[in-house]
TrEMBL record:
This is MARVEL domain-containing protein. Its main location: membrane. The keyword Calcium does not apply. It comes from Anopheles darlingi. The lineage of its organism: Eukaryota, Metazoa, Ecdysozoa, Arthropoda, Hexapoda. It is found in: Membrane.
């Protein structure tokens, strides 16, 4: 008599979203919302520091301002998307992965741009470098939060529950 054991794993995933656009001010009270607002403000302050200096035309300032403005617009648009639940309406788009890649790239770009700005002897560039380093920390922290969310299988807005069920069956057969 021979016995065979067969194991089947059934994974059920349930995603619950509300597919309509609505304003929800509660997002700005969450940690990701606060981090996103801080990054938007730091981008803007760094940009203003460079732009209002007499030497804003220098390549170091132009590079810093490019990083700051692209970060400002991306983070600002994502903030609006979260406030109005656009990410929830289009939950099939991997928003968290997109933000993860962006935040990692911007943390590295801010490290580079701030280091270049800090190496000059211009006070406005050095002030911008301080805000750039703070933005680098903000984007790094946001990347860490996004990494944890992606790894746990979350979606940007709404909820996703995963149920894993294992079934085991033993079959006995007669052999002659």
């Amino acid at each position: 008599m021979a016995e065979f054991t067969q194991t089947a794993t059934v994974t059920q995933q349930q995603t619950v979203v509300q597919p309509y656009i609505r304003y929800d001010p509660e997002y700005i009270r969450t940690i990701p919302g606060i981090v996103k607002i801080v990054c938007v403000v730091l981008n803007l302050i760094g940009f203003i520091c460079i732009e209002f200096s007499y030497f804003s035309y220098r390549p170091q300032g132009s590079f810093f301002n490019t990083v700051a403005m692209l970060g400002f617009w991306f983070s600002g648009i994502m903030l609006v998307f979260y406030l109005f639940h656009v990410c929830e309406k289009f939950h099939k788009i991997p928003w968290l992965k997109i933000e993860l890649y962006f935040c990692v790239a911007w943390a590295l770009l801010y490290m580079l741009a701030s280091s270049i700005a800090a190496a000059t002897s211009i006070e406005a560039f050095q002030a911008a470098a301080f805000f750039g380093y703070c933005a680098m920390i903000g984007y790094g922290f946001d990347a860490f939060l996004k990494f944890k969310s992606v790894r746990s299988g979350e979606i940007a807005q709404g909820s996703r529950t995963v149920h894993v069920q294992q079934q085991q069956q033993t079959v006995s057969t007669l052999t002659a």
